[in-house]
Specification:
It is a single chain. This protein has helices at residues 19-22, 32-36, 45-50, 71-78, 91-100, 110-113, 145-153, 156-162; strands spanning 5-12, 56-59, 83-86, 104-106, 119-123, 128-131, 136-139. By secondary structure, the protein is an alpha/beta fold. It has a single domain, classed as Alpha-Beta Barrel (Aconitase, domain 4), CATH 3.20.19. The mean pLDDT is 93.
């Protein structure tokens, strides 16, 4: 699968998960590999024990709100998670995720249409979430072309290197 197409197990968390719950204060200055062993531990302890590369994190409204810790998307990426699909994202996390090349997708209503453990196929570019377990397809809001380009490149720095320092839409 490409960076913008992910297939994996669904992990679910609720609404208003703050960045402090993604990366606890005690882990802020640890290497990302160490941070990854504690991601979401206070809200979903099983996540760090079972997450596999390419899995899908599904969240409710206003995911990654609060302090806006820039390390939160980096720590999530270090877990191997393939994509984060949420009802909505805090704007700082939304920006930071794209900047580092972590695929995310806003999908209103997603938490009512998937269950923990369902197998999901997520096409970020098309804005589609296929629940292979239930045989349903959910239409999300695909990212605009510029952000898709940034995700395809692997983040802002890779995008700028690819385009000679110029923004291309």
């Amino acid at each position: 699968m490409s960076a913008l197409r992910v297939r994996g197990r669904c992990w679910k968390v609720g609404d208003n998960i703050p960045t402090d719950a993604i990366v606890a204060t005690a882990n802020l200055f640890k290497p990302y590999e160490e941070m990854a062993r504690h991601v979401l531990a206070s809200v979903h302890p099983e996540f760090v024990l079972g997450v596999k590369p390419g899995d899908v994190l599904v969240a409710g409204r206003h995911f990654a709100c609060s302090s806006g810790r820039a390390v939160a998307p980096k720590a999530l990426r270090a877990t191997g998670i393939g994509v984060v699909v949420a009802e909505s994202f805090a704007r700082t996390f939304y920006r930071n995720a794209h900047e580092i090349g972590l695929p995310i997708l806003e999908c209103p209503g997603i938490t009512e249409q998937v269950r923990e453990g369902d197998e999901l196929d997520v096409d970020v570019e098309a804005g589609l979430v296929r629940n292979l377990t239930l045989g349903q397809t959910i239409q999300a809001v695909p990212p605009p072309p510029f952000l898709r380009g940034m995700l395809k490149a692997g983040g802002l720095h890779a995008y700028l290197e690819l385009h000679g320092g110029e923004f291309v839409s």
